[in-house]
Amino acid sequence: MRKVGANDILVIGAGVIGAAIARELSARGASVSILDARTPGSGATQASGGMLAPYTEAGEGGPLLELGARSLGLFDRFIGQLQQDAGIPVGYERTGTLHVAREDASLAHFAETAGELGQLGIEAQLLDTAAARAAEPNLAPDIFGGLLITTQGIVAAPSLTRALVMAAQRAGATLLEPARVQRIRAEGDGVRVDTTQGSIAAGTVVLAAGAWAGQVTVEGADAAPPVKPVRGQLLHLGWTAQQLARITWDERCYLVPWRDGTLLVGATVEDAGFDERNTVGGVRQLFEAVCDLLPLAWNATLLSARVGLRPGSPDPLPIIGWSSAVPRLMYATGHYRNGVLLAPLTAQVVADAVLDGTADPALALTSPARFGRL
Ligand SMILES: Cc1cc2nc3c(=O)[nH]c(=O)nc-3n(C[C@H](O)[C@H](O)[C@H](O)COP(=O)(O)OP(=O)(O)OC[C@H]3O[C@@H](n4cnc5c(N)ncnc54)[C@H](O)[C@@H]3O)c2cc1C
C-alpha cells in the first residue's frame, strides 16, 4: 500500500460525500489521499435520484431545511467550478418540481406548504387542475392539482462523483488501492488506520463511509455512529414519449427526467440490512407506481434497476464533526436521503474545520457528540 505522509489527510469513502470533501481539501492546497473498499461512487451514490429538493425533503422545516437550503444555494457555483477543474461535464439542471395531488387532502396540504414557503421567500405556486395538466400533459387523468416549486433541481450523481474524484486528483490527491478500513485509533498527534491491506498513519482522517461507517471500530469511542442502512431501489427507463419538464412527484414515486430521454423512477424505502440487491417486489412496486402516474411509461424500456443503501441517521440529520475519542478524526456520514444535496455544504464545513480550525454553525446541528462519546 502506498505510504501516506504523516501530516496528510486520509479520506475514507469515495461516495459523493468523501469525493466532495477530498476535492475541496485538495483544491485548498492540502495533501489528500482517498481510500475506498470499492470503485469510487459505487455505494449509495450510484443509485441516487440526484434530486436537489430541500423544500420537499424537509417539508416540516427545522435544521434539515436550513442545511439543505444552504447547500442548494452553493450548487450553481459548485458545479460551474467543478466542470472547469475536472474537465468533464456534469448533468445539472434547476428543472423545478411538481407535486401532484390525486386527492383533496394532498391539495389542502400543498396550500399550507405554499403559504409556509412563501413566508420564507421561496417561490411556490398552487396549481388547479387545468394548470397542473398544462404543466405536464402526459400525467394520469385523475390529477386535479399540484404544487410547483421552481428552484429545486437535479444533478447526475454518478458523473458528479466521477468529476469530484477527477478534480481532486488533478489538484494532487491520490486514490489509493482499494482496501477496507477496519479500525481507527489515535497515534501521537495523528491517526492510525488498520485496513485489510495493511496499516496507514495520517495526520487527519475523515470517515465518510456512508451506511458502513458504524462497522469501523473507533478505539476509545463508547459506541459506533448510529448509521443504519436504508435500502432504496430505483429504475432507469428509456423514454421515447415527450419528456417531462421537471421532477414530478406523487404519493407513490418520483420521476426525474433527463434531457437524454431517460427517466429515473424512485424509490423504495426498506429495512433490509446490508443487502444491496434489487428485489422483484421492489421493482414491481416502482413499475406500478410509474405506470399509474404516467400511463405512457408502459412503452418505456428498462435500462437498469439500481439499488443503494442510504446512510440513515436517527434524527435524521447528518453526522458531521470531530470525534471525541480520536482527536484528529472527523466524521462525515448519516446523510440519509440528502447526501447529494448536502455534498457541497458538507465539503465546505469539513474543510473549514480541518484546515482552518473554524466551526461553521452547521456543525452545532450535526455534531457526533449528540450520540455520546464517538
Ligand atoms: C435510491 C436512492 C435514491 C436517492 N435519491 C437521492 C436524491 O434524490 N437526492 C439526494 O440528495 N440524495 C439521494 N439519495 C441519498 C444519497 O444517495 C446518499 O445520501 C449519498 O449517496 C451518501 O453518500 P456517501 O458518500 O455518504 O455514501 P456512499 O455513496 O454509500 O459511499 C460510501 C463509500 O464508502 C465506502 N466504504 C464503506 N465502508 C468502508 C470501509 N470500511 N473502508 C473503505 N471504504 C468504505 C463504500 O465502498 C462507498 O464507496 C438516494 C439514495 C438512494 C439509495
Précis, in short:
The protein has helices spanning 16-27, 54-57, 63-86, 104-119, 129-135, 157-170, 280-293, 339-356, 362-366, and strands spanning 9-12, 32-35, 51-52, 92-93, 97-100, 124-127, 146-149, 153-155, 174-175, 181-187, 190-195, 198-202, 204-207, 217-218, 228-238, 247-249, 254-257, 262-266, 301-312, 319-322, 329-333. By secondary structure, the protein is an alpha/beta fold. The two termini are 28 Å apart.
Largest sheet: 8 strands, mixed
Tally of helical segments = 9
What is the arithmetic mean of pLDDT? 95
Helix content: 25-40%
- The assigned structural class equals alpha/beta
Rg value = 21 Å
Order of helices and strands: EHEEHHEEHEHEEHEEEEEEEEEEHEEEHH
Enumerate the distinct ligands: flavin-adenine dinucleotide
The assigned CATH architecture of the largest domain is 3-Layer(bba) Sandwich
For this structure, the CATH topology of the largest domain is FAD/NAD(P)-binding domain
Question: Class of the largest domain, according to the CATH hierarchy?
Answer: Alpha Beta
In what range is the share of β-strand residues? 25-35%
Number of strands: 21
Write the layout of secondary structure elements.
Blueprint: E1 9-12, H1 16-27, E2 32-35, E3 51-52, H2 54-57, H3 63-86, E4 92-93, E5 97-100, H4 104-119, E6 124-127, H5 129-135, E7 146-149, E8 153-155, H6 157-170, E9 174-175, E10 181-187, E11 190-195, E12 198-202, E13 204-207, E14 217-218, E15 228-238, E16 247-249, E17 254-257, E18 262-266, H7 280-293, E19 301-312, E20 319-322, E21 329-333, H8 339-356, H9 362-366
Parallel strand pairs: 1-2, 1-13, 2-9, 5-16, 10-14, 13-21
Antiparallel strand pairs: 3-8, 4-8, 5-7, 6-7, 10-11, 11-12, 15-18, 15-19, 16-17, 17-18, 20-21
